[in-house]
Every structure is written in C-alpha cells, then in structure tokens.
Write a structure and sequence with these properties.
This protein is α/β, with parallel strands linked by helices. 29% of the residues lie in helices and 26% in strands.
Length: 201
C-alpha cells in the first residue's frame, strides 16, 4: 500500500502540495502528467524519501523502492556494470544481473565504460537499467524516456512494463504516448498547490 494522508510540502516559502490525500493501487503502472512546474517531480521525490514532507504522512508497505531520476545521477568513478552492481544486495549480487540489464538496454558494448564516455541517451538507459535491476516492488521513474528516440523509447517502455508486474510503478511523463505504451493509468496534476490527483479527462 502507498497512502498519502494530509500531505503538504513547502519549498522556499512556496506551497507545492497542500493537504493531499490519495491511496495508490497496490500494483500496476501509474503515469503522473501535468504542466511543467506543477509538482510532479516533487511528489515523486517525496514518495522516494528523497524529500521529507513539511507535514502529513506517506505510508508505504512496499519492500523496496528504486528511483530513476530525470538527471541520471550515475556514479562517475564506476563503469556501467559497476553502477548497476552498486544497487544490488548481497542476496542478488551477480555480475550476470548487470550483464543482463546492460544487454536489455542495448549497452553491452559499454559495460566497462565510465558514465562520462556515454551519450545523454546512454546515460539515461544506464540509470534506468540500474533502477530496474534493483528488484524493487515500488519503482519510481522521472521522465525515463525523454532522451531516447521513438524506437528506443518504445523498446525501453516494454521492458519497464514487464519489470515490476507484481508491484507498483509510477512514472512522470509529459508524453501521453509513453503512458499508452505502458498501459498506464493516467493521473493528472492541474492545480498549484497540488490538492488532488484526478484521472485524465
């Protein structure tokens, strides 16, 4: 369960989220959509625990959370395989896991490359591979296909769609096509401060 109760967040004296109450479905894919600056990324960071609420509560019963940020946030001193291995627990650590996800995301040839040697699209795919490899049942993805061309984006969306079938995946996107590729339920953010989540009209 992922439940928001009277959630409020204020940043630099600006109220971004105010008394938001919402319970997400236990599993499936949710796409958060709305105008730039409305609070989509802020909400995702709150769900991830990267930001703390000003007040209110976020209750999560999920075993593990993983997030792919809009900026890749890769560890620049580790190569591609090592970046993925970094998020694996002792119980599922295996070089095979990294190799598998690099292959799925079309990065096999970059296995030993540092992030600084990658293009923007490759960095985004590596960030996504790292999140998917973590084995989380709550997966949070911020604009995960924004740096990819349509062919790569559609292929990557198929991987995301099947990666967490028994858990909950929440993505932020500006592109309705991305939500359609994922068969996602769309929740629309259309007011500031954010007080409610509504199904896309």
């Amino acid at each position: 369960m992922l439940k928001l109760t009277d959630l409020c967040f204020t940043y630099a004296d600006k109220c971004v989220i105010e008394n938001l109450n919402f319970t997400f479905p236990q599993k499936g894919i949710i796409a958060l959509m709305g105008p730039s600056g409305i609070g989509k990324t802020t909400l995702l960071k709150l769900l991830a625990g990267v930001l703390d609420p000003t007040s209110g509560e976020i209750l999560s019963t999920y075993r593990k959370t993983a997030m792919a940020f809009q900026e890749p946030r890769l560890l620049k001193w580790l190569n591609c395989a090592e970046n993925i291995n970094f998020v694996l627990s002792n119980s599922n650590f295996s070089s095979d896991v990294a190799t598998e996800w690099l292959e799925r995301l079309g990065l096999s040839a970059r296995k030993n490359s540092l992030p600084t040697a990658l293009s923007g699209g490759e960095q985004q795919r590596l960030s996504l591979a790292r999140a998917l490899a973590a084995g989380a049942d709550l997966l949070l993805l911020d604009e995960p296909f924004s740096a990819l061309d349509a062919t790569l984006a559609k292929h990557t969306a198929e991987l995301v769609k099947n990666a967490n079938s028994e858990g909950l995946t929440i993505i932020v996107t500006h592109d309705r096509t991305h939500a359609e590729w994922l068969d996602a339920e769309v929740l629309y953010l259309n007011a500031s401060p954010l007080t409610t989540l509504k199904n896309q009209p």
